[in-house]
Write a structure and sequence with these properties.
The chain has about 190 residues and is an all-alpha fold. The chain contains eleven helices and no strands. The termini are far apart. InterPro entries: Diverse_Catalytic_Enzymes, HD/PDEase_dom, HD_domain, HDIG_dom, YqeK.
Amino acid sequence: MWTEDRIKDYIKKKLDKKRYDHVINVKDMAIKLAEKYNVDKKKAEIAALCHDCAKNMSEKELLNIIKDHNLNLDWISLKNIQITHGLIGSIIMKEEMEIKDRDILNSVKYHTTGRANMSMLEKIIYLSDVIEISRDFKEVHDIRKLAFENIDEALIKSLECTIKYVLDKGELLHTNTVIARNCLINDKM
């Protein structure tokens, strides 16, 4: 597995300054949440650093990797190829960075949509991406505070904000996002 410095060098070359700064902010938030919820901080750090490693790839580059790996995408992902940057990032991590930890890989793979029965690390990376310090949307302060009180409640609120945002824009909503929210609601019942 690559060292943290080698990963940072890689993403610094692949991402623009704004995106790189975002990744560092996500890493900082992920470490704080990992401490709060007794999750391996190193795993949180690696997943956070890598979560957007494919973000600045063109649609053509993403599609080439999808084709080369014979990936069967759902129709929603096919209509919005950029949503696959988490999936492609997990492939880059496994094949280039030699990261084999399934929880780290899944945390990157599902950080844009969420999914059913997310692990604690997956929850941390998903939320850290949403609430890192430079994020500024109406509900972020409440979600950020809630993340350190009850991570599942913060996730529900975050997923509901995402759902509303996507619906308001008239865009396609990934079914994993709805399923992630419903699973968390169901767990409360």
